[in-house]
Design goal:
The protein has 328 residues and is mainly α. It folds into two domains: 6-189 and 297-325, 3-Layer(aba) Sandwich (Rossmann fold), CATH 3.40.50; 209-290, Orthogonal Bundle (Tyrosyl-Transfer RNA Synthetase), CATH 1.10.240. Helices cover 54% and strands 8% of the residues. Helix 10 runs antiparallel to helix 13 (268-294). The two termini are 36 Å apart. The model has no long low-confidence stretch (mean pLDDT 94).
């Protein structure tokens, strides 16, 4: 029997998960459980790299993230779910890889300067921030992942991991496979103000929001700016609410909105109510499971403990091979 390809992916616990995180990554992770051996990591050390002065909420966000993951369908019987900092081998491999990575490889990282500009209110000239791609590479290589689910914008990060693997295998001997990109197309998901959904924009609908909050956020969402009166015809293609319909609503509703908005046969509030119904239908089972998990913290602890044990057993095997190759 052919072994399933192994994947590694993770999220930083830097805030509550929102619909954009679900559509862009989490829903795909759930599907990948059918075809891959999955390792899913709460990247809490990575969260420190950009939030080193505000670490007090990382544990809370870690717990909330785990609840969201399990409620959305990650299955500990089919996936290894663990917290990065519980597996210290990540730090050891990061250290060893950092000895062979040229500094210019890190300085050319496109995210390095972009995030320094975006986070101008914080001092991001730290050693840890410059070197976080090496930690990211260690995360992937520690589990000898065959593939990594990434979007187009993340390809440069994965290519650096491949380069580090090649350099290690050349300097010492072949220990690491070069992980391939498992490209995932993330549909556009606007926030309530029409911009990309983001917790930093205060425009997000969170997986932990109760139904009344979700409906109220959608009720106040921006629409086609040219449609000022109920009688004005609209253009669905420029309306953020229609983008949500295309992701969450059934085809019949999408077709109806596409016609009735253009003829002013439906008003914006009624249109928003329909997409709210669709989102509530999609997430009601998740909310129910979320409530059950939140009421049973021991079950979360058990998932983390068992996932950590399995992740660490794999990590130790890899590190033993690394130490042998480096004659350490």
């Amino acid at each position: 029997m052919t072994a399933r390809p192994r994947i590694l992916s993770g999220m930083q616990p830097s805030g509550r998960l929102h619909l954009g995180n679900y559509v862009g990554a989490l829903a795909n992770w759930v599907r990948l459980q059918e075809t891959h051996a999955c390792f899913y990591m709460v990247a809490d050390w990575h969260a420190v790299s950009t939030n080193y002065a505000e670490t007090d909420r990382i544990k809370l966000y870690t717990r909330e993230m785990l609840i969201d993951w399990l409620a959305a369908g990650l299955d500990p019987a089919r996936s290894t779910i663990f917290i990065q900092s519980k597996v210290p081998e990540h730090a050891v491999l990061h250290l060893l890889l950092s000895m062979i990575v040229p500094v210019p490889w890190l300085e050319r990282n496109p995210t390095y300067k972009e995030q320094q500009e975006q986070l101008a209110n914080r001092d991001m000239t730290t050693y840890g921030f410059l070197g976080y791609p090496v930690l990211q590479s260690a995360d992937i290589l520690l589990y000898r992942a065959d593939e990594v689910p990434v979007g187009q914008d993340q390809l440069p990060h994965l290519e650096l991991t491949r380069e580090i693997a090649r350099r290690f295998n050349h300097v010492y001997r072949g220990v690491f496979p070069e992980p391939k990109a498992l490209l995932t197309e993330a549909p556009k998901l606007p926030g309530t103000d029409g911009r990309k959904m983001s917790k930093s924009y205060n425009n997000a609908i969170f997986l932990s929001d109760p139904e009344p909050t979700v409906r109220e956020k959608l009720r106040t969402m921006v629409t086609d700016p040219a449609r000022k009166r109920r009688s004005d015809p609209g253009n669905p293609e420029v309306c953020p609410v229609f983008d949500l319909h295309k992701i969450f609503s059934p085809t019949s509703t999408i077709e109806r909105i596409n016609v009735e908005c253009r003829t002013a046969a439906i008003g914006c509030l009624d249109c928003k109510a329909l997409v709210a119904d669709a989102i509530v239908d999609r997430f009601k089972p998740i909310w129910e499971k979320r409530a059950a998990l939140a009421a049973d913290p021991a079950s979360i602890d058990r998932v983390v403990r068992e996932g950590t044990e399995h992740a660490q057993s794999v990590a130790r095997e890899t590190l033993a091979s690394v130490n042998d190759a480096m004659h350490l």
